[in-house]
Amino acid sequence: MKTGALINRKVTAFRLNEDLLARLKVQAEKENRSLNNYVESSLMKLVYRKPNKTTLAAIQEAQESDNLETLDMENFDSFIASL
Fold it and tell me: Which of 26, 35, 55, 79 could form a disulfide with 51 if both were Cys (CB 3.0 to 4.6 A apart)?
């Protein structure tokens, strides 16, 4: 998005869970941003996010691989300690 470029915006109304709205307001305030700006930029990051080449390759490998490891969640602490 270019700075200074004209951006068409449309007024829209949404119904949000009260707790979610409260948390969004807190996060916007922490970043010294308006609620509208915070929500719009968060949604844009989500919608326009594209994985990089490394991530795309990993996704493809995981989808095509027949020998993926299974995590033993009963020994997860041991697994983490081994890293």
Answer: 55
Domain ranges for the chain, please list them. Answer: 18-65
Q: Positive or negative, the Cα torsion across 32, 38, 44, 50?
A: positive
Q: List b or e across 51-66, with b for residues whose CB sees 16 or more CB atoms inside 10 angstroms.
A: eeeeeeeeeeeeeeee
Q: How many CA atoms lie within 13 A of 75 on its CB side?
A: 6
The identity of residue 1, as a single letter, is: M
Q: At CA 49, angle to CA 32 and CA 8, rounded to 5?
A: 65
Question: What does the pLDDT look like over 3-39, one tens digit per residue?
Answer: 567 788 899 999 999 999 999 999 999 999 999 999 9
